[in-house]
Design goal:
The protein is α+β, with helices and mostly antiparallel strands. Helices cover about 35% and strands about 25% of the residues. It contains eight helices and 18 strands. It has a ten-stranded mixed sheet with strand order 1-2-3-7-8-11-14-15-16-18. Helix 2 packs antiparallel against helix 7 and helix 4 packs parallel to helix 8. The longest helix is centred in the N-terminal third of the chain and has 25 residues. The structure holds adenosine monophosphate (AMP) and magnesium ion (MG).
Amino acid sequence: MMKRALCLLITLVLLSASCALAEKQDITLTRSGDQMGAQMFAMDTFIQATVYGSALDADALLEIMRNVSRLEALLSTTSPDSEISAVNAAQGESIPVSADTLAVLKTVLEVSGETGGAFDVTAYPLVKAWGFTQDEFRVPDGEELESLLDRVDYNQIILSDEAISVPAQTEIDLGGIAKGYTGDVLTAALREKGVNSALLSLGGNIAVIGRKQDGSLWKIGVRDPLGSPDSIGYLQIEDANVITSGGYERYFVDEDGNVRWHIIDPKTGYPAQSGLISVTVVGKNGAKCDALSTALFVMGADKASAYLSAHPEFEAILIREDGSLLLTNGLKDRFTLMPGYQNRSVEWISR
Ligand code: AMP
Ligand code: MG
């Protein structure tokens, strides 16, 4: 009996040791001088953090990076065990959710209201109908989209202090905001540990803490959305997020040669055709920048400019299909076009 108990104990100890190892392998840590890096694949993308200075040890960085998997488990639509999947399956019942899920949804409703529903997480049935959730792309017919549009309305989301409910036919998807929020959680945790210089990339979403260690600003490239993977220019920032929604990020070409991307206009049910092909938003609140980059893409240059004129807490770079640029005037000293792009037309949004 004693022997069996001992065997069980040893097995348990070995199992937990191998789990810890497996988890550590999922997050790769690197160190060079007083610079420490962490990389992982999560939320369908590569996530990378580089922390400068000696405020943090490896275990603390690992612990902070585990927030990514924790948040993915709460917020993912594709994982059947997530809180969002529970809300979507609840058939109208109110579901208690974590503080993180509530915080994301609060921002969701804020941005949806401010953008007249250009950002609408209840567009999920449309996102699925176009095949973007499972990478099984298809063009739904007008009738199908029409019937799905009846289910799209962020006003149907009911949020209390600890629970959320959506009507039986309504489904939500946080793909347009989850990475921005995750960036906020990571930078807050790093700051709390005393980190004052760090660069994070969550699938191209950038969040920086402070400045580079030599005191200079971070230089963040903005991708040319018209095919080439080059940077069209770069931003110089500190303590901010740089978040881009681009038509080039996820798309397919249909039988008629139309490019169909993953940003859906919740009013029409079709991939947004606003004349913009890329929107970069710069600001302190990553969740809001993320939701806004998606919303402004849907709104198009005129409505996006009006929004930005009224919200000086955000800077933005809008790129039209013809390659011309529209920037908020706070970026006058902060954005530089690369040599190959000097001839691009540039206009400024004043406020
Ligand atoms: P992003 O790359 O941040 O612009 O987010 C795009 C993702 O957000 C898509 O893959 C969908 O999951 C979701 N989405 C698409 N259109 C909208 C929309 N109009 N409002 C909110 N979420 C959307
Ligand atoms: Mg977004």
